[in-house]
Structures are given as C-alpha cells and as structure tokens.
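Below is a filled-in request sheet from our internal design queue. Each sheet records the structural input a requester submitted and the sequence that came back. We keep these sheets so that new team members can see what a complete request looks like end to end.

REQUESTER: design group, bay 2
PRIORITY: normal
MODE: inverse folding
CHAIN LENGTH: 455
BACKBONE (tokenized):
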C-alpha cells in the first residue's frame, strides 16, 4: 500500500500560522526506531518542526511491549504530560506502536488516561495524518483501536538523524511464535517488502551520501518466504552488494533455524556484508529451547555458530534469556557451556520477564528472582572474561571503518565501528568524518579499542 498524505498541504498551511513542534519518544527495538524516523518524516512534511521533550506541541509515544518496564515508563511519562494539559498548554498526545495492540493497555488508556488524543496500532502510518489533522484543526478526538497490522506501507517519508548510516526495513511481522515473545501478536504475520522497493530505497540513500545500511526485520532470513516467485534473503544481499556508494551492509536479526548454507556463502564472498552476525541463542539447553519453541537444539546452534566462525575475522553477538520458567541450574549450565564454546563478542542478556498474552506467561515458575540475578551475574562474568581475549586478537591488524564523528567521551578523538561492530577511537580530523578509512588497532579496553588511521 502506497503511503499518501492528503492532509499534508492543509496542515502545512495551519502550521505557517501556528508553528507547532513535535517530539517523538521511542521505546524498544531498531524496528521501532526506524518507524519513529518515518513518523518524523510525516510530521516534518506537514510543517511541524522538531521540538524538545518539555515544550513540544505534538508528543508521539512510539511504544514497545517486549520489556515490562516500557509500560511503567509510558504511564509515568503520560502522568507528567497531564499537567501540561491541565495548564491548558497546546499539547496533543499520540500513542502508537506495539503496546496499543494489547487489549489491557488500550482499556487502561481509555479508563485512566482519557486526555490522550490519538491511539493507533502498528502499521497505521497511513491513518496518522488524518487523525492528527482532525485532533488539531477540527478538535475531534476519539480514542480508538484500529487494526491494520497486516498493512505494508510503502513510500513513507523518512528523516534520518545520521548522515552516513541508515536503516531500511525489509520484512515486517513474525510467524515464529517463540513462547516468551509478544511480537507475532502485535506486529502480525510476516510481510516481505518487494525487492525493487528495497533496492530503490538503498540506491536513493547511496545517492544522498549514505555509506552504511542496516537491513531490519524481526526475522530477516525468512525474507521472501511469502513471495510466489523464489527470491530469498541471500539473493537480496547479492543485489544490494551491487549498489555503488554503499560500503557496509549489516542486518538484524536472523533466526538460527533459518540460517542456511547459501546465506553463509554470500557473507563469506561479500566485500560489503559486515563481518558481524547477530545470532540470538536465548538458551543453551535443548529442553528449554523446546519450551521456548525456538526449533533448534544446543548442538545445532553450536554447529552453526562454529561454521560461521570459520569466516575470517567474523564476530558473533547474541541474545540470552536467563531464568526462563523453571529453568534448572543444570539447564543454565548448558547456556554457559555454549557461551564458552562459541565465544561471543557481544551478549545482550536479560532476566526472563513475563509478557501477558504469551504462552510462557502461563508456565509455572519456581525459580526465585535472586537465583535469576545470580545466573545473570555469572553469565556476565564469563562474558567479561572472554571479551579481552577476543579483542586482543585484533591488535596489530588493520580494519576498514566509517568515521562517524567525535567520540562522546573524549572530544579530541574520533570514533567508528569496524565491520565486526567493535567501537574504535582514534585521532582524526573533521575532514575524515563520513569517509571509510583503514584503522590499525593498537590496544583493547574491554568495551572499545584504540587505534590509528593508516594514511
Ligand atoms: S523470532 Fe521469536 S523472538 Fe523473534 S520476533 Fe519472532 S517470535 Fe519474537
């Protein structure tokens, strides 16, 4: 469905006199961040200027329901905005994204947060301009839930904040129903974007000077499964490799069960696909993996990870959940065993948290919170022991990276990420920013490396 904003001109006209500003509060994953850039594109197209958190007129919450604390964050922030409404400030509040697709949240908003103006689910960008115009200009407000979660919206304007790196969604939704995850219920079934739409987006970005792209999807390697004619994720990578100007291609996240040899071959032979793969493990125990409905075993995961590690200079990152319902000590030790064998460069680790509406939320759980915290600490310790060893292997070698700008912690130094997604700081000049340079690694400092540009 092509995105058409028939309210653009009318709203621009209104904004010429009223100068309204917007602020977008984004929670959750990179898919949500990408959606927020599109909301910014829609708003700026309608004449709204970017404002700040304390004074903006249009406040958009782009919500997530993967982590429990996101709910508390949303309702806490709504409470603060209520004061501005009571003080008769000109403020309009929209809540969009995953959280609004959950019935109990919608009921809570309707009951206790009636000052909210617009509530829309995922894939509702086509409706957003009309709702916003009606709220602001026609003073019409109605909290309603609109289910268009299976839409595929094309040509939505987008405002990137970075000048050299951009994200491009390639597939929406998920068919996997991992038992702990709410995503398939709130983002709908898998819908792959047409290859030509993605390739055109990437060509346009290259023309605008972008050097690095991140391909996004809940499960990128099931891209194309919904097409009648065969066109797969490895085929898409090969086509994108041909786009001149793009130098680094990353993707997030693949599912281990769909990671086949043809994808490994494409990565191995590519000059642009990053030498970094995010391969979510979740648990290292086969029984727990079965309860999670992950559809791979401990052994299958290790085989795949070690096969990937044969690609020269590759780095692996992963997600791990500790304390899944009734996870035993022995089962947790399997997770540590996989971490020891695979040696991940980055681990995003979480204590299991119940999401209402998922199968795992109904599972009995006798593991205490203290035990879960203890497991998380032990996992963290093991990871921090492994990391310096992996970093040290990079010392003395040269890596290509995009100079992103000044380091946040030391404004005399500049920063960038290697293809392996390692942060490197080095001396450079403003002229180097936006260029791809070779950097030699001099030393490792756990979370970052120090290097020098090879001129
Ligand atoms: S693959 Fe599993 S964890 Fe990932 S989005 Fe789909 S259901 Fe959730």
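RETURNED SEQUENCE:
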């Amino acid at each position: 469905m092509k995105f058409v904003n028939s309210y653009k001109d009318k709203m621009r006209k209104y904004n010429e006199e009223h100068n309204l500003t917007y602020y977008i509060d984004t929670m959750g994953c990179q898919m949500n961040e990408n959606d927020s850039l599109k909301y910014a594109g829609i708003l700026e197209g309608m004449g709204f200027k970017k404002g700040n958190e304390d004074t903006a007129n249009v406040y958009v919450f782009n919500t997530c329901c993967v982590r429990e604390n996101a709910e508390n964050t949303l309702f806490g922030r709504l409470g603060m905005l209520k004061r501005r409404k009571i003080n008769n400030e000109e403020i309009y509040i929209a809540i969009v994204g995953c959280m609004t697709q959950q019935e109990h949240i919608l009921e809570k908003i309707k009951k206790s947060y009636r000052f909210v103006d617009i509530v829309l689910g995922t894939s509702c960008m086509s409706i957003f301009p009309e709702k916003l115009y009606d709220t602001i200009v026609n003073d019409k407000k109605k909290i309603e839930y609109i289910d268009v979660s299976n839409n595929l919206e094309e040509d939505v304007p987008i405002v990137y904040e970075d000048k050299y790196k951009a994200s491009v969604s390639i597939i929406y939704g998920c068919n996997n129903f991992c038992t702990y995850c709410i995503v398939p219920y709130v983002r709908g079934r898998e819908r792959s974007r047409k290859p030509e739409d993605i390739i055109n987006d990437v060509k346009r970005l290259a023309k605008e000077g972008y050097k690095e792209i991140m391909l996004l999807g809940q499960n990128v390697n099931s891209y194309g499964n919904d097409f009648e004619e065969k066109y797969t994720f490895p085929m898409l990578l090969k086509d994108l490799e041909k786009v001149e100007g793009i130098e680094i291609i990353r993707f997030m996240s693949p599912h281990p069960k769909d990671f086949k040899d043809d994808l490994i071959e494409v990565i191995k032979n590519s000059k642009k696909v990053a030498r970094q793969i995010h391969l979510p493990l979740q648990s290292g125990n086969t029984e727990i993996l079965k309860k999670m409905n992950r559809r791979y075993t401990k052994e299958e995961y290790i085989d795949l990870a070690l096969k990937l590690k044969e690609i020269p200079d590759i780095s692996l990152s992963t997600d791990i959940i500790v304390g899944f319902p009734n996870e035993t000590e022995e089962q947790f030790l399997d997770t540590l065993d996989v971490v020891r064998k695979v040696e991940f460069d980055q681990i995003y680790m979480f204590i299991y948290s119940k999401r209402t509406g998922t199968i795992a939320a109904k599972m009995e759980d006798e593991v205490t919170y203290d035990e879960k915290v203890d497991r998380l600490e032990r996992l963290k310790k093991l990871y921090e022991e492994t990391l310096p060893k992996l970093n040290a292997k990079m010392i003395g070698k040269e890596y290509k990276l995009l100079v992103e700008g000044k380091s946040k912690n030391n404004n005399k130094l500049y920063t960038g990420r290697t293809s392996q997604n390692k942060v490197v700081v080095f001396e450079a000049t403003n002229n180097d920013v936006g260029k791809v340079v070779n950097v030699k690694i001099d030393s490792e400092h756990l979370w970052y490396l120090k290097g020098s540009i090879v001129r």
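SHEET NOTES:
- The pocket of iron/sulfur cluster is lined by residues 174, 176-178, 181, 183-184, 218-219, 255 (CB under 6 Å).
- The domain at 306-392 is CATH 3.30.750.200 (Transcription Regulator spoIIAA).
FILED BY: M.R.
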